[in-house]
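Format notes (please read before filing issues)

Several people have asked whether sequences and structure tokens are stored in separate files. They are not. Every record keeps both together, in the order shown below: the sequence lines, then the token lines. Line labels are part of the format and must not be stripped during preprocessing.
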Amino acid sequence: MLQVREVSHSYGNRNWLDRSGSRPVLENISLTMDKGSCYGLLGTSGAGKSTLGKIILGIEKPSKGEVWFEGKNLYHSSRKLLKEWRRDLQVVFQDCYSAVNPLMTAAQIIGEPLRNFERYSPKELQRRIGILLEQVGLRPEDERKYPHQFSGGQLQRVNIARAIALKPKLIVLDESVSSLDMVHQTQILSLLADLRTHYGLSYLFITHDIRAATAICDHIAVMDQGSLVYQGGDRESLIQCAHPAVKQLVSSILPEHPSERIVLN
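Then the structure lines:
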């Protein structure tokens, strides 16, 4: 479904004291996602994960390389096809509050993509929004609430409802559970798994949290300083990987009983 082919990207240096030129953020990234899969993209802050996510979403054009979605090149397509992709590719960001307009109700937030791409009557639009709210574990009457009236976990559910409203083919989840406490993280991960089954969704799950990734992902890749340093689907091979960036992520896994904790040399 998705192919990233030798993507590289650089940002120009804005510091006039430093004449070293552009700064590489991604270097020769290649990966493939199958339809219906959940692909985990792990790495510490600054590894290049979010930049790659923006390139896949069509928000930022890479300096080099190609992104293919369902057999078509994202950055060499007609306006009509790009509009279709905006429908098929959705995103849920980490900060649920900055991702919404604080002056809009939940109904307006969720209904925005529906108004842009569909032609519902006011009554049908309200019915559809109510269904979406129920599917993410909220109540239809919550449609009248504003963002500040929701908890962080509840507002992230509103963001997820907006993301699934058009029944997209791929959702990029950019640190979408990182700002939540453990209880809400578990609830949102369970919700994402249920929605994936219900809608046949595919996820690109961007995170620094190896626990969350191993809980939901079929395949995991690790980025470090703009490069892919690990790809695999086996949790054991991830744990045994000798690359320092992978070992750093794995070291964050601490089972409750000390005797079961992983010791890394």
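For reference, the curators noted about this record: DSSP finds nine helices and ten strands in the chain. Residues 182-199 form the longest helix (18 residues).
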